[in-house]
């Protein structure tokens, strides 16, 4: 069972929900929590565990061989990501922009762009109790999140059976990295806040998950600030708003100290329980 926690913008409480939901569920069953916000993972701030596995991850990039090149420029033409610049006397590759699609390499008539590995990031796996925590983290300056997300998801797929609960902390936004995380999820939980920015970005996120034809729900964080536009929007659109996490100084203090809110704040425990009840009542992950 895969549950992706996503949001239209950063800072809405995605990690709060992902970590609290994961630890709460791990009190009674095995759970995998994966931080796939690979540019800025921070779920790990809440996890103290035993290191089980750590590896450097790599991506494939082309390397120009000037001795073979005949300077026709085909490599630049076929690259959809502007990662190759073919000049009259040389070819430049921009590894940060390269998606490792092999097109330039395979379509180079002289074999002047063999692919080679380049370190991209790190994958870390911690264990604590019934919780397995897996984090993908891009190296500084590395811009392509999708290859590392794919590798992290593949690591999870290899290591855990289908029926284990997997909570995927997605990157914020609505672009390719989020789609990579949510496209195979059984449920997407969109976390938002009752502010104009939250409302605006929630609508974009809803458009994205509807386009992907995903089952989704909404959790409202910092309930009590702003206005009721998110609540009314969910009612009008027939979207289940399954839990509200209140705005409070106590929550902010516990969070900033790396604490687990559901253990100390009744309203957060109730919110997490509501999410679990929704998952069970709707047989998420058990559909045929
Ligand atoms: S496609 Fe190959 S031969 Fe042509 S310019 Fe690029 S590297 Fe050189
Ligand atoms: S491998 Fe693909 S993305 Fe990378 S430089 Fe070549 S064509 Fe562009």
UniProtKB/TrEMBL annotation:
<dbReference type="InterPro" id="IPR027417">
    <property type="entry name" value="P-loop_NTPase"/>
</dbReference>
<dbReference type="InterPro" id="IPR002586">
    <property type="entry name" value="CobQ/CobB/MinD/ParA_Nub-bd_dom"/>
</dbReference>
<protein>
    <submittedName>
        <fullName>ATP-binding protein</fullName>
    </submittedName>
</protein>
<dbReference type="Pfam" id="PF01656">
    <property type="entry name" value="CbiA"/>
</dbReference>
<keyword id="KW-0411">Iron-sulfur</keyword>
<keyword id="KW-0408">Iron</keyword>
<feature type="domain" description="4Fe-4S ferredoxin-type">
    <location>
        <begin position="89"/>
        <end position="118"/>
    </location>
</feature>
<dbReference type="InterPro" id="IPR017896">
    <property type="entry name" value="4Fe4S_Fe-S-bd"/>
</dbReference>
<dbReference type="InterPro" id="IPR017900">
    <property type="entry name" value="4Fe4S_Fe_S_CS"/>
</dbReference>
<keyword id="KW-0067">ATP-binding</keyword>
<dbReference type="GO" id="GO:0046872">
    <property type="term" value="F:metal ion binding"/>
</dbReference>
<dbReference type="GO" id="GO:0051536">
    <property type="term" value="F:iron-sulfur cluster binding"/>
</dbReference>
<dbReference type="GO" id="GO:0005524">
    <property type="term" value="F:ATP binding"/>
</dbReference>
<keyword id="KW-0479">Metal-binding</keyword>
<keyword id="KW-0547">Nucleotide-binding</keyword>
């Amino acid at each position: 069972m895969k549950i992706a926690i996503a949001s239209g913008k950063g800072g809405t409480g995605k990690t709060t929900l992902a970590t609290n939901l994961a630890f709460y569920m791990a009190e009674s069953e095995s759970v995998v929590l994966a931080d796939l916000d690979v540019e800025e993972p921070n779920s790990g701030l809440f996890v103290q565990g035993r290191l089980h596995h750590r590896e450097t991850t790599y991506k494939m990039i082309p390397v120009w061989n000037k001795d073979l090149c005949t300077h026709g420029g085909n490599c630049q033409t076929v690259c959809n990501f502007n990662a190759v610049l073919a000049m009259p006397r040389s070819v430049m590759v921009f590894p940060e922009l390269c998606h490792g699609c092999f097109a330039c390499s395979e379509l180079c008539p002289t074999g002047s762009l063999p692919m080679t590995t380049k370190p991209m990031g790190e994958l870390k796996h911690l264990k604590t109790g019934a919780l397995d925590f897996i984090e993908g983290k891009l190296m500084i300056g590395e811009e392509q999140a999708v290859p590392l997300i794919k590798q992290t998801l593949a690591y999870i797929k290899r290591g855990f059976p289908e029926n284990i609960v997997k909570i995927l902390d997605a990157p914020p936004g609505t672009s390719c990295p989020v789609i990579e995380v949510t496209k195979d999820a059984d449920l997407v939980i969109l976390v938002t806040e009752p502010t104009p920015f939250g409302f605006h970005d929630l609508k974009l996120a809803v458009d994205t998950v509807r386009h992907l034809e995903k089952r989704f729900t909404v959790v409202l964080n910092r309930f009590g600030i702003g206005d009721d536009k998110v609540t009314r929007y969910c009612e009008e659109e027939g979207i289940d708003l399954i839990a509200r996490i209140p705005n409070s100084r106590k929550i902010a203090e516990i969070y900033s100290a790396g604490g687990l809110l559901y253990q100390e704040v009744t309203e957060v425990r109730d919110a997490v329980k509501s999410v679990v009840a929704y998952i069970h009542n709707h047989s998420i992950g058990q559909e045929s």
